[in-house]
Structure formats: C-alpha cells, structure tokens
Amino acid sequence: MFRKTGLLFVFLLAIVMVQCKSDTTATAPLKPSNTVKYATGFSIENFENYTVVTVRNPWPEAKKTYSYVLHKKGVTLPDSLQIYTAITVPIKKMVATSTTHIPSIEMLGKVNTLVGFPNLDYISSDKVRQRIDQGKIKELGSNQTLNMEVLLELQPDVIVGYGIDNNNPTLDNLQKSGLKVILNGDWNEQTPLGRAEWIKFFGALYNEQAKAEDIFTKIEQDYQRTKAIAAQAKQKTTVLAGDIFEGKWYLPKGDSWGSLLINEAHGDYLWKATKGTGSLSLSFETVYEKAHDAQLWITSGQFNSLADMQASNPHYNQFKAFQNKQVYSFNRKKGKTGGSLYYELAPNRPDLVLKDLVKILHPELLPSYQLYFFVKLE
Fold this sequence. Notes:
It is built from 14 helices and 19 strands.
C-alpha cells in the first residue's frame, strides 16, 4: 500500500513540476494582435508570457527593424527569441534621452524610475525637476557623448535612446558595455495621434499596457471631439508659420506634424501643398510674396513680443498679421531652467495643441477655453 501511495505521490509531483515549468516557459498564440492603431514606427504584440515590441522606423528611411522581447522575471524564452534584446519588466530604473519621453513617464506615474538624462536643463516638468533638485536624476552630458562612467554606475534596466540616422556609435558602445538600449522613434511619426500613441511603448516597458491604453484613448477621443468642432467653422483662416533663423526662414512642410494640426483645426496653411515632413528653408522675399496678407502668424517661439520680433528683423512689420497683431507663439510655458514645455509635452498631447489652434483660428467655437501652449504676442 505504501508503495502504491508513494508512486502516486511521485506521479502527482511530476505533474505539478511539469505544470510549474510550463508556467515559466514562454509560449505564443498563433495570431498575436498588434495593439498600436495610428503609429507606423512601432508595434506591440502580446504573447502568453512575453511581449514583442518592434521598432520599424527609428529614423527617416531606416533599413532595419529592431525587436525587443519584454518578459516578467523567471520566464524562460524560446530559443528562437534569443537573438533579440530581452528586457525584464516592469523596469525599475530607466535612462531617457529625449524630453518627448518625459510626459509618457509622468502620465504613467513612473517619474521615480527615471535615474539619468542628458542635458537636464532642457526638462520642464515640475515633477521631474523636483527629483533633479533632489539629486535623484543624474546629468549624462549630451546624446552624442553620454557619460559612460555615470551610466555604468547607475546600471539602468534600460536606456531609451533615439537615432538621427544609422550612425549611432554612442548607443552601440553602450550595448557593448552590457547596458540594454531600446530605440524610440516617436519624433519620426507623421501624424499627431501617431506620435501620442508612443505612450504605449512606455506602457509595455512598465508592464502598464492597460493604463497606457486608457490614457491614449482619452487623448484620442478628446482630439476627435475637437476636430469635429473645428469642422463646424464657416471659413478658413490663412496661416503663416515660422520666422528667420540665421538668414533663412524656416517653416513646416505640408506633410509635417504642425501642418496637419493646422489643417485639422480648419486653418489654411499657405504651404500645405508642399511635400515632406521636415522644414522648408526659404528666403524672406519668397515668404513675403506668398504670405504678406496671411491673416494669422504662428512664430517659432524665439520671440516674447512684437517688439522683440521687430528688433530682430524690421521687415517683419510688413506682414498684415503683424500689423493686425495676430501673431502667436507656442512658448507660453517654460520650465524653471528655460526649457520649452511645448517641445516636451505637445507631441504627447496633440489634443491640447488642437484645442489651442481651434481657439486661435475660430474663437467662437471654444468660447470658454483658455490657451494652454500658445500666447498672443503684444
């Protein structure tokens, strides 16, 4: 009897051990679905015990895709995934490298995980600046020459980097040193909601995908509501953008993020027909010929008043928008060290940018709304 009982116990123990082992071995459904709707630069596919984040377009015309496997501690990954960078989630310590990463970290309630950043003065977030003042976030120099000694001391779970092109020696050296780098290409997205959706990228790293989805859905819904309000406008306002920097007038191309937002706000951006997502570099004469009668002017943010503009270039006063005091800057809010909140937060909150533009272009449609990023220059 004891022998039978003992054999039965061993048999049951073997079953439990097999079950426990299967619980920690990553398996996959046949058809994982991508949870990303608008962004074209990355995808998130959830398997049973791990998630694959694939970054397709970290810089313009990138020829290679980058896949990262996110898994909980204790999960054994299949041999087929060993070629990819594996990251244990939720991460506890992160190094970010762009101010556009900061809002996602803050909205997810994970500011306390940020341990390092290059050029700390660029950060505007009050919560992050408080941690900087407390010495809890270390200065890492510049993106081109990140301080390797400090990074090795910090030992972050992951460094969220970005590239301008295929030449990224700093990021390559970090990986050779045993640090884990994951590329983020939010800046290369062509649509407002596509850029904002990169909060899901951070949600996956923190194992907070449901929270990221909820935050993005609210932004998306607010954006779509404002877009519908803008469509009620009876006429379009003609818009000039940008200003002169080092002898050239820089303004967004027709497929750029800024141009698309003006169009969504039911504005008539005068260079909307140009192709591309970067900036046009034009002469003063070329811009004046096309836009001297534009009803509205959105500057780059380098000026605080009309007097500042006139002092920089006395010919600015030849534009109708300047004469009628219809000039707006997006630099209403700055961090205490001079960083622009617009550059940091606007890509993550296109709903607020769109509301601002609708208020400026068609104030009657949002009578009680107060501008968030923009300010009228006096």
